[in-house]
């Protein structure tokens, strides 16, 4: 099986889980398995460093590298997930210019030693924008991983929203172009993938003629925009208007989807959600997987996955074959200079076996094929497609999110609860000595017995036990040797902790809050005497006589009363009476007997629901207009700048068609259009 690279703008790292098929198993591991990907490049993560969770970072069998915005919240963000069983990067960086620093380091990537750099950093003369380099890398738009085979660049290019972002966008694209060209010039292979926010040709967008007509543009003007000019000068087969720019004379990358589908129309990767354009496939192709010439033949397939929902974009992938030609493998010169018909005879004679009989000059062979895993992992991990060393945490790079302090040395969320307690020194709550064990057991038995007795019996039992000296001191007959002071202190502490729940209700020194004052304050409602029914909320507050109050509290003092039954000591201590417990009469009062609540003078009950229906009948219910399909229209708001910006209108709720036009008699959006201010339909 080959190795698949997938790029996907998810519009929020958790956004796909609201759609099928991701909502059934809401884990990233299941998502990546469904994508059948080994490297997943995600754009628009829209998350902050403090909001990273275990399920995002500690994905079993996967490593992850993030680049998140430094200042803006819920904005941009790029992540690259790599399957540890298939590939393992040897270097990782954040940002396109190399001016950022590795985690826990103050050294910029471009200032690291040569053997630790990825290289290809833009030079001062290659950047024409006035935007400084730290600003270009402050929005979390690029993650770069280097494998032995190639350098993978995952990007999220700025979009053209308004003129205020034009300079930043052009500066980022210039830095990207310089980095790619410098890496290729160094002899490294490059794979560039992500959301570039650029329409390459007229095949890559729907409704282009109508758009040009509305904007009074020609096709030549359309391709002369700075972003499209940059892109078409970078890729092979791009439509470049006029002469090429200086330093961009030669293309360096291949558009893999177009290489496998050169004339396919409707191969779009992004659709407008506001107009529900995806069902009619009225969109654009702005997500790409590009590669340099040296590894173009390694790819056996590339396509879009427009059927997978979860975002306003769809995934795009490119698959590397199982066996690839390794241009980095060195072989003896004689092995590649004597492969004619006589080679077999000469090899039988042993003349050129590994160049043994000639000078050992070595050359790079473009013919030798090796398993893809051999060139996608550090040296010595795979050999001839077989794993020699298992992946371990020692291969984690400083940029790995698994090394963030919150996630370091943890493999999964289960480890939070499965950690073994570290052995500590002898604490005050260690196991008691044998000489006091019997005393502790007797105290524990007494405490449990006290909890099971009635309130009055428990109180008398506690008083008797408190007068017994054996509860508070050690019996000499239980041990031949006197207990140590430390054991005595331990016994008293544990005895106090065990008896605390039983002492609270049995204590006679503490005042009874609800039974202490039975005078004037007893008429005030309090938390101890709960309302028996809803009627009590609307009754006047009249003083309660002592006789009625004594009847009310009689069940509290008499524990053995057959009417009240045995009451737990805790409830008696809080002053609760049997009336506090809901009974059948109270349930009936709640369901059917509303008392005097909401009664008018004539005895009728005020019903707010009936009143609302009466007002609705008086004013009339506003109905939605019907479109040409006979369906309810949808209320929308004008966002286009102009005098009508902000006005609401009714339009057909169906998705827009593949042409972008509203045509009658089709299954797509019809021509119905009604201003909301012009519609006053009432039922």
TrEMBL record:
This is DNA-(apurinic or apyrimidinic site) endonuclease 2. Residues 419-485, 500-583 are annotated as: Disordered. InterPro entries: AP_endonuc_1, AP_endonuclease_F1_BS, AP_endonuclease_F1_CS, Endo/exonu/phosph_ase_sf, Endo/exonuclease/phosphatase, Znf_GRF. Mg(2+) binds at residues 9, 44, 195, 197, 312-313. One of its GO terms (molecular function) is DNA-(apurinic or apyrimidinic site) endonuclease activity. Keywords: Endonuclease, Hydrolase, Magnesium, Manganese, Metal-binding, Nuclease, Nucleus, Zinc, Zinc-finger. It comes from Lasiosphaeria hispida. GO terms for cellular component: nucleus. One of its GO terms (biological process) is base-excision repair. Its cofactor is Mg(2+); Mn(2+). The record marks 313 as: Interaction with DNA substrate. Gene3D superfamilies: Endonuclease/exonuclease/phosphatase. SUPFAM superfamilies: DNase I-like. The active site is at residues 156, 195, 313.
